[in-house]
């Protein structure tokens, strides 16, 4: 399996996704500030991977603390969490993971646990989140595979694969699971301007697994749909609002509208940690604005005239009405999403075990 990130005795090791597909190199973050930089600079990216990276950042920061009193450690934990939370605003998994680590810390600190034991427990918690993430991806695959065509072409946007998670992937995990179950699937990967997650990352990891992949420019999907060449669409998510509206990489909304116009099913695959019950609708999801140079420059070369105004929102929100189903690790959500989401959280609380095959 592709090693997206890994806890090591001397830090957290990240596959440098800014260098793929041409170079497979690693960046070792040896303190929590470096983990924050790795997330902000998109050396690691993708909602679930960002979440687990932040959890490991908290574990690393606490484990390196020189604090000798719980009061001093409390203050450090707050700073560590705030630093990691300030990296990227849209993927809710980041905030979910930091909160889970803070909750764990607070429970141990309140119970009077000695500091060395707190440190060990936080490292264990982050490693457990890593394992849970892979298990959730596998379970999404098991639930979602039957939705994909037995034979056909599936379009995906951005990278919601092993590289965006701790392994296996959400949307690409469903594709992997379908292929493992004998489906004959060709993948169309939108290039995903401006950061090219589709062209660089999705194509790289699917070809790594021998899954046939064709890279499309972002403006080709409509024409291919009209010709009947796309049979399903599956994407990941950065944050799903309580009503099912879904923020994902910029361009996802256009693909969803096109899919509906052409009668093609449009699926979202995401773990429950991506669903934000505190956010009512897609309009309430904060959308990250990234640097203009991602748009103006390609491989260091300027592509636009000086003076041209630039927009670079990294995500858009797709209204729930365009989404055929949301695939989670606990099962499939369908409209009306507000209700099915609430029911799924109840079901997960009552029966947390995941399907494994
Ligand atoms: C399983 S990852 C789902 C999403 O995080 C993914 O589709 C996406 O939009 C990633 O954006 P990125 O800006 O590369 O972090």
UniProtKB/TrEMBL annotation:
**Which reactions are catalysed by this chain?**
5-(methylsulfanyl)-alpha-D-ribose 1-phosphate = 5-(methylsulfanyl)-D-ribulose 1-phosphate
Pathway(s) this gene product operates in, as recorded in its UniProt entry: Amino-acid biosynthesis; L-methionine biosynthesis via salvage pathway; L-methionine from S-methyl-5-thio-alpha-D-ribose 1-phosphate: step 1/6
Instruction: Report keywords, A-Z.
Output: Amino-acid biosynthesis, Isomerase, Methionine biosynthesis
Give the residues the record marks as binding substrate: 45-47, 88, 197, 248-249
**Where are the catalytic residues?**
238
UniProt xrefs under Pfam families: IF-2B
Q: Does the keyword Isomerase apply?
A: yes
| Enzyme Commission number(s) of this protein | 5.3.1.23
Q: Which SUPFAM superfamilies match?
A: NagB/RpiA/CoA transferase-like (SSF100950)
What's one GO MF term for it?
A: S-methyl-5-thioribose-1-phosphate isomerase activity
Domain of life where this protein originates: Bacteria
- Name the residues annotated as site: Transition state stabilizer: 158
* GO terms for biological process, alphabetical: L-methionine salvage from methylthioadenosine
Similarity comment: Belongs to the EIF-2B alpha/beta/delta subunits family. MtnA subfamily.
HAMAP family membership: Salvage_MtnA
What this protein is reported to do is described as: Catalyzes the interconversion of methylthioribose-1-phosphate (MTR-1-P) into methylthioribulose-1-phosphate (MTRu-1-P).
Q: Which NCBIfam families match?
A: eIF-2B_rel, PRK05720.1, salvage_mtnA
What protein am I looking at?
A: Methylthioribose-1-phosphate isomerase
